Amino acid sequence: MTGWLIHNEYLQSGKFKEMEERFVQEADKAGVTLICMSNTKVMAVLAGGDSWRSDPFPDFALFLDKDILLALYLEGREIPVFNSAHAIEICDSKAKTHLALWNDRLPMPKTISAPMTYANIGYTNLNFLEKVENEISYPLIIKESYGPFGRQVYFIPDREKMIQKTKELQGKSFVYQEYIESSHGRDIRLQVVGGKVVAAMLRTNDSDFRANITNGGKMISYQPSSKQCELACRACQATGAEFAGVDLLFDKEDRMLVCEVNSNAHFINLEQCTGVNIAAAILYDILDLMG
Ligand SMILES: Nc1ncnc2c1ncn2[C@@H]1O[C@H](COP(=O)(O)OP(=O)(O)O)[C@@H](O)[C@H]1O
Ligand SMILES: [Mg+2]
Questions:
Q1: pTM for the complete prediction?
Q2: Cα of 192 to ligand 2 centre, how many Å?
Q3: Which one of 3.40.50.2300, 3.60.40.10, 1.10.150.120, 3.20.20.10 gives the CATH number of domain 2-82?
């Protein structure tokens, strides 16, 4: 069995390298040949057409990248891609994730996608803000659709900030979202693999509403309830993710709301926190699916 482990040529920081190394280690143990390929190299192989094929195609691709077009090319060549191009596309966008969760009636903070405009035109009026304000009261959250580690998630206390951020983001995809005060600086990250939660941690941050570890959050291993596990698995189903890191928020009654589904989750922190071998869980799930 041979797989391609696909990463992005231009994202070479420690975090990303570590993930690759973990998968290669586990593949070695499982007797699977996992060949590290960058998206640029794979695109060259595919775009070269059959006559150009120097590397034989793999049995599967483990896709650590978000180059969705490339994932679609691979699927077009009937190479099974994990996660699928569809799942990566949905999870990569917080707006598309919301739509997928909403279609399945899963609980999440009230969310409204900003209307689309063109970058070179922007919003020539902001009349729609009144409608957003009727649905979601201040303070609220604005999230850019694309962006990890809590970096593009903003706390909006009032109308002035709302107008300022809306103007700043015009032309990009973003959402307005209800602020869940009961989950301020606190959430749970559940790692789902093949319809099961394999590891979970509680993340807390005393100095920021965002609990991301990269943003200074602290982590502690967590024993999720069966309801929490079921919700995380349903969120994966809704987005089509075979495996994902699902973030859940606590509402006032400590019931859970889906915050987001990360098809390309970084699990090194979670492995260190819980001692669970997540790389192996993902790899063996793929091998199972491949028969
Ligand atoms: N609606 C919300 N209310 C309160 N806190 C939130 C809300 N949405 C996100 N957060 C906090 O911000 C963090 C980052 O948000 P998230 O949507 O997961 O984006 P990212 O992809 O940047 O991690 C979450 O882990 C959570 O702690
Ligand atoms: Mg998150």
A1: 0.95
A2: 14
A3: 3.40.50.2300
